[in-house]
Design brief:
The protein is of the alpha/beta class. It contains eleven helices and nine strands. The two termini are 25 Å apart.
């Protein structure tokens, strides 16, 4: 395998061999989460800063848990209570943090490309935890790990990604990753939520029934109201009627099709509770695998030694 990249900025430019390296490492680290004592000394002495300019529950918490399990020292900064509120620029914030000698900065930002901007200017390793509507690489990796665990493979799977594709960094990262590893992807959204150049990501349809037909997995996307500045659809009720996943619609997919969602869910909008909580849902498995994938990324970027028993 060629040398692992210095940063994890996205899936679009990540080599297939590095995708598989992360997934394989995450699978081996997954068993640490089932131990009575969830602690290994792999990254002892390493310092990580979690810098989140946008709200987060799963991503931020799983990075923090991953860092603690690997014995890294970490500090988390929510910009709502930082000097960003006093007008400090992103670059000044990071330069000040770098003066404290962190080994890595995990970053979420509302502006697409912000992690790439910092990677060109920082000594620290940069891990993209979501940049605007651009990419969310660790989410795509944890989704791939979940699919592989339940299906034993990624190649040849048909995955429907449904919902607010226009604003979804999850859709972009997943489409790039899954197609790289040989899966078939079909994107589906209302006509008002179609991003420009969608055909470059994956085949696309506005017909939900067509997208679900024969799918091995259905990945529902959150309607991102906070990124919407206009009326993209009449109401949440109307959205659910046309594009929400319920039990009846799920029957169009394969009988053992997996139901996925990156969270947080808008129940009764993009997904019905009986589906989200049903036997085909692997949504909580995704959350668990998020810790394993983020452990793997930290391990590979920071050059951890072999995991101790």
């Amino acid at each position: 395998m060629t040398a692992f990249p210095r940063h994890l900025l996205g899936i679009e430019d990540l080599a297939v061999e590095h995708i598989h390296a992360i997934l394989d490492t995450a699978q081996s680290l997954r068993e640490v989460l089932d131990r009575p004592i969830k602690k290994v000394p792999t990254l002892r002495g390493r310092n990580v800063v979690n810098l989140f300019y946008e709200p987060s529950t799963r991503t931020r918490a799983s990075f923090e848990v991953a860092e603690k399990i690997l014995s890294a020292d970490s500090v988390s900064i929510a910009t709502a209570t930082s000097s960003a509120q006093k007008g400090e620029t992103l670059l000044d914030t990071v330069r000040n943090l770098e003066a404290m000698s962190p080994d890595a900065i995990v970053m979420r930002h509302a502006s697409a490309g912000a992690p790439h901007f910092l990677a060109r200017r920082c000594r620290s390793r940069i891990i993209n935890a979501g940049d605007g509507a651009h990419e969310h690489p660790t989410q795509a990796l944890l989704d791939a790990l979940t699919l592989r665990q339940h299906r034993g493979r990624l190649e040849g799977l048909r995955v429907a990604i449904v919902g607010d594709v226009l604003h979804s960094r999850v859709a972009r990262s997943n489409a790039w990753l899954l197609r790289k590893v040989g899966a078939e992807v079909i994107l589906c959204s209302p006509p008002t939520l179609v991003p420009p150049g969608v055909e470059q990501l994956a085949p696309f349809t506005t017909d939900l029934d067509e997208a679900l037909e024969g799918a091995d997995a259905v990945m529902m996307l959150r309607v991102q109201h906070e990124r919407m500045t206009g009326g993209y659809f009449p109401s949440s009720r109307e959205y659910h009627r046309r594009y929400g996943l319920n039990l009846e619609r799920l029957e169009r997919s394969k009988p053992d099709a997996l139901v996925m969602h990156p969270g947080p869910m808008n129940r009764g909008v993009e997904i019905a509770s009986e589906v989200a909580d049903g036997p085909r849902s692997v949504i909580l498995d995704q959350v668990t695998n998020g810790v394993a994938v983020r452990m793997a990324v930290l391990y590979l970027l920071l050059g951890g030694s072999e995991v101790a028993a």
